[in-house]
Specification:
single chain; 2 domains; elongated
Length: 378
C-alpha cells in the first residue's frame, strides 16, 4: 500500500469545486481544507477550534501554505463546509483512498451505518444524518461513505456505496439490514464474496436456516457437508466461547425455498456465543448466509471481523473524536465534517511509530509539529 500522504491528499482534492463566489474568496480552498484536516487530526471538533488551532500554528502553516489573508475565521470554515458539495467531497475522498490501497483482494470489507446523533435540527424539521461506511480490516482504512437519504434507510444507500468500491476478490460483511437479494447481486457482480447476518425480519429464510441447523444437530450432522470452529477468549473478568458451524451446498442448501433468489449462495452459518461474567452466563445464537465454502474458521473470522467497523471506526469516532457530541448541522457541514473525521482517522491509523491509541495520537500531533508532519507525510 502506498502512503496516504498530504501531497496525494491535496492532489486528489484539488478538483473540488469552490462553492464561494469570487468576491468572497479571501482564502484558498485547499488552504482551508488542509488547516481543517490538521486541526481535526490534533483534536479540534468544530469550526471555532479549527480557527484557534490555525492561529496557534500560523508560523508552521506559513512554511507550506499560501495564506494570502492569514487564517480563515470560524465563520469562513463554517460557510465553506456548509456549502461544499458533499458528494463531490466524498468522491475525492474515495479517489484518495483508492490511490493508496492497491487492492482489497482477499481483504474483509465491512459495511455498517452510523447516525450522527446531534446533527438533527428539530426547529427546521431536519432529522439526524445517517452515514453508511465501508472499512477494510487488513489495511484498517475507511474506504468510503454514503449518506442515507433522510426519507429512506440503509437498504437504499448500501448499493450506492458498493458500486463506488473496488471489491474484486474481497469478502463483504453486512449486518441483517443489508441481507437483501439486490445487495447480494451487486456484491457478486463485483466479483466479491459475502457473509450476511440474518434476523427474524428475514422471515422465511431465517426460519428455514434455523430449522436446517436444528435438524442437522439432532442427527449429529450425519451425511451433512459441514465444518466447525470454536474460539475461547479471556480478559477483563469474562470468558467468551464462540462456536461456529457451516453447512455447504448439497441437499441441505437446496432445501432453502428462496435459494435461487440469492446469487452465489453456497453456505449457511450458525454462531453460538456464550459469555461468562462472574457467575452469570449469557447466550446468543445468530444465523448467516454466505457465498464462501465450508471453512468454519474463515466464517468465524468474517463474523468476528465485522465488528471491527464498530470497534475501530464508530467507537473511535464517538470516543476519540466525540462525533456524537458535535452540533455542527448547517447545510452540508455535518456530512462534510464526518468525511474530515474519516480522513483524519485514516491518516492517524497509518502512522506506525506511535504505539498508542487514536486519542493519544491526536494529542501528540497537537503537541509536536514533527509528529503531525509524520502523520501527514508518512
Amino acid at each position: 500500500m502506498n502512503a496516504l500522504s498530504s501531497t496525494s491528499l491535496r492532489d486528489h482534492f484539488a478538483s473540488l469545486s469552490d462553492p464561494r463566489i469570487d468576491r468572497t474568496k479571501h482564502h484558498h480552498l485547499l488552504d482551508i481544507l488542509t488547516i481543517a484536516i490538521c486541526a481535526i487530526i490534533c483534536g479540534a471538533d468544530g469550526w471555532v477550534e479549527i480557527e484557534e488551532f490555525g492561529n496557534a500554528k500560523l508560523p508552521w502553516f506559513q512554511t507550506f501554505l499560501t495564506l494570502p489573508n492569514g487564517i480563515p475565521s470560524h465563520d469562513t470554515f463554517g460557510r465553506v463546509f456548509a456549502a461544499l458539495d458533499p458528494e463531490q467531497f466524498q468522491a475525492c475522498f474515495l479517489a484518495w483512498v483508492q490511490s493508496a490501497v492497491t487492492s482489497t483482494e482477499h481483504q474483509l470489507v465491512a459495511l455498517d451505518g452510523k447516525t450522527l446523533r446531534r446533527s438533527h435540527d428539530h426547529t427546521k424539521g431536519k432529522a439526524a444524518i445517517h452515514m453508511v461506511s465501508a472499512w477494510a480490516s487488513a489495511t484498517r482504512l475507511v474506504l468510503g461513505q454514503v449518506k442515507v437519504d433522510e426519507k429512506s434507510n440503509e437498504i437504499t444507500a448500501l448499493p450506492d456505496l458498493l458500486q463506488l468500491l473496488a471489491l474484486k476478490g474481497c469478502l463483504v460483511t453486512i449486518d441483517a439490514m443489508g441481507c437483501q437479494t439486490e445487495i447480494v447481486k451487486t456484491i457478486v457482480e463485483q466479483e466479491a464474496d459475502y457473509v450476511l447476518s440474518l434476523k427474524g425480519n428475514q422471515g422465511t429464510l431465517h426460519r428455514e436456516v434455523q430449522e436446517l441447523f436444528v435438524h442437522a444437530q439432532t442427527t449429529q450432522f450425519r451425511e451433512v457437508e459441514h465444518d466447525f470452529h470454536e474460539t475461547v477468549t479471556k480478559g477483563h473478568g469474562r470468558l467468551e466461547v464462540r462456536r461456529h458451524w457451516t453447512i455447504t451446498e448439497g441437499e441441505y442448501i437446496e432445501y432453502l425455498n428462496t435459494k435461487e433468489r440469492w446469487a452465489k449462495l453456497r453456505s449457511i452459518g450458525k454462531v453460538e456465543a456464550e459469555r461468562h461474567i462472574g457467575g452469570t452466563v449469557s447466550r446468543e445464537t445468530r444465523y448467516y448466509i454466505g457465498s464462501i465454502g465450508k471453512d468454519a474458521k474463515q466464517f468465524a473470522e468474517a463474523v468476528r471481523g465485522h465488528w471491527g467497523i464498530e470497534n475501530s471506526v464508530h467507537w473511535v469516532l464517538d470516543i476519540a473524536f466525540r462525533e456524537d457530541e458535535s452540533r455542527v448541522r448547517v447545510g452540508n457541514s455535518a456530512q462534510n465534517l464526518a468525511v474530515l473525521g474519516h480522513i483524519a482517522l485514516n491518516l492517524l491509523r497509518q502512522e506506525p511509530s506511535a504505539k498508542v491509541g487514536i486519542k493519544a495520537r491526536r494529542l501528540k500531533a497537537g503537541w509536536s509539529e514533527d509528529y503531525l508532519l509524520k502523520v501527514l507525510l508518512q
